[in-house]
Structure formats: C-alpha cells, structure tokens
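step=encode ok
step=design start
structure_in=
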C-alpha cells in the first residue's frame, strides 16, 4: 500500500513539471498545412519535416487535442526554419502516448 501511495504521489508531482504544448513561433503561423495533396507544380521542395509531441510519461496529463496542436506547431516551426510556407502532410503516426507528423516542406508562390 505504501508503494502504491508513493507511486501515485510521484506521478502527481511529475505532472506539475510537464510542459503541455510546443509553442508556435510567431512567424510560423503563416505556414499552410495540406493533407495527402500532390503539391503544386510551381512549388520548390525544401525537405522533409517532422512534428511530434508526447512521451510515455506524459500521456496521462496531456489531452489528445493538446498533443495534436503541439505536433502541428512543431512541424510548422521546423518548416518555417527551412524557409517553407507550405507543408504536405502524410498520414499521421499515432502512438498510444504521442503523435508524430511527417511531411514535405515547400516554398510556393
């Protein structure tokens, strides 16, 4: 019983140390996301980008919505750092404890 109480208290205290979301850089908000699109022929491909959020020890404390928002913010920030204004997303990779997005960054007119 004492071990269960200690474990529960430890998880409760750990929850206060968890950052819940990846912040979106101000300039990254202009990056557009498209899902399973073939892309615009006038766009220049800049590279592959990923966005993810969540860990095995945080999924108890972060909602699915917050996980997705953080993963989107992460991929937009990475795309913007490459000079992209558009990302074509592939199917998301949901795990039980996290979300990972994979996409291709483009610079489009």
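sequence_out=
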């Amino acid at each position: 019983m004492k071990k269960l109480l200690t474990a529960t208290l430890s998880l409760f205290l750990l929850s206060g140390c968890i950052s819940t979301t990846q912040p979106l850089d101000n300039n990254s908000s202009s990056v557009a996301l498209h899902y399973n699109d073939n892309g615009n022929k006038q766009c220049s491909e800049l590279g592959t980008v990923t966005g993810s959020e969540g860990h095995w020890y945080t999924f108890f404390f972060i909602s699915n919505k917050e996980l997705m928002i953080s993963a989107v913010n992460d991929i937009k920030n990475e795309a913007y750092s490459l000079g992209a204004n558009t990302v074509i997303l592939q199917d998301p990779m949901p795990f039980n404890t996290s979300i990972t997005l994979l996409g291709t960054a483009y610079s489009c007119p």
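step=design ok
step=annotate ok -> DSSP finds two helices and five strands in the chain.
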